[in-house]
Amino acid sequence: MSIVRKGHIPYAPTGIGEYVDELYTIKGFVGDWAHIYRKHNLAHPKGWSNEALIYSAIDSSVITAPDKDDANGAPLPLLVGDGAAISLSQRSAPMPFAEKNADFHQIRFYHQGQYTLDTELGSMEVEAGDFVAIPKGLIYRETPAAAGGVVLIFEVADPIQLAERLWDHVGFTSLFVDYSRAELPSPTSASDGEVDRQTQVRVKYRGEYHSMEYDFDPCHDVVGWLGDPILFKLNVWEIPGIGTTSGFLPPPANAVLFSEEKSFFFNVLGPRPMPTSPPPDASYGAPSHLNDYDEVWFNHSAELAPDTNGHLWFFPPTLPHPGLKRPAEYPPNPVRQVREMKLNFDTSSALHWTPEAKEILMPDPQVAVYTSFYGAHVGVVPEAVTRYAKR
């Protein structure tokens, strides 16, 4: 017997009604779980002794990274922890060096702008919506096409794997994420002038930046390579949304990248299919939920609330997400693409905001979680919920 029922189950877990339904999970979302129906939302305490206990967010557009105005500057760390970190780059000028991260593997998400990304394996053009996996120790150089670019950098200690390893186990085959669309760099013929030039390589090692000098450019001297696809690019708009006829699925159902140790999941959440079952057993939106992983969410594109683009949310495992559901309804025709996209990064690492990020935390997180993260994105104005949050 794997699933049991106790007490009163008023409606399906995907449904909506008078109770707050809360999903509790272990090992992120991949362990044991319990779906709880309660009279009050545990995500809204009346007070707390430490700001680190409650979910919080920043607007990344109001902070300046050191590399925005200084070509030799570094990205700005926002959330850091043992085994993972998230930083912001706003580089407006070409890197005057090549770079090697000897501490972490990277997922570089291009939120705004266009760039040329030179690597040891070849060069790629990247644009808003692209994300690039760069393994630890590989040299690269980033050149923005113009000022105004924004890159969100996810650093992880464990190697980055394609989540097709997960989806092959459930038989999704070619009908979910099409990983054949991933672009791999290929070396191109470089002139002697491009290869034979003094090159500084900035090395991130044991949390500090150092440098090495070469009399050639490591990003232009490679003539060929073979092996596994260790460095690749995908675009979030190529990732289909996923759901059921009754409602949402947990974030790892949208996993695109992960670690074999399941120490992190990199999830891409575009618009989900609209439920086709009526209430009370179907809904549109997410339940309240809590697990033992730290969760980070980033608003890349919000058609219904464009002022929330660039908002970065952090949910520690001390408090559930409040959740927000609305009754299911069938969308109008004709079918069109909804420009709504979030990134979710779930990690077993214990993260915390850096001092620079703490200075710009949004006030009143119990209200902001709806106006920035939930309500505006599902097309509702959660007045009753925000009034409750303020009590």
Question: Could you explain how this protein is built, in words?
Answer:
By secondary structure, this protein is mainly β. 8% of the residues lie in helices and 35% in strands. The chain has helices at residues 164-169, 192-195, 355-358, 365-373, 383-390, and strands at 20-25, 33-38, 56-59, 76-81, 84-89, 98-101, 105-112, 114-119, 122-127, 130-134, 139-144, 150-156, 161-162, 199-205, 208-214, 232-235, 255-258, 264-269, 283-286, 288-290, 294-302, 311-315, 324-327, 340-347, 351-353. It is globular.
Give a summary of the structure in a few sentences:
With about 400 residues, this protein is mainly beta. It has helices spanning about 165-170, 190-195, 355-360, 365-375, 385-390, and strands at about 20-25, 35-40, 55-60, 75-80, 85-90, 100, 105-110, 115-120, 120-125, 130-135, 140-145, 150-155, 160, 200-205, 210-215, 230-235, 255-260, 265-270, 285, 290, 295-300, 310-315, 325, 340-345, 350-355.
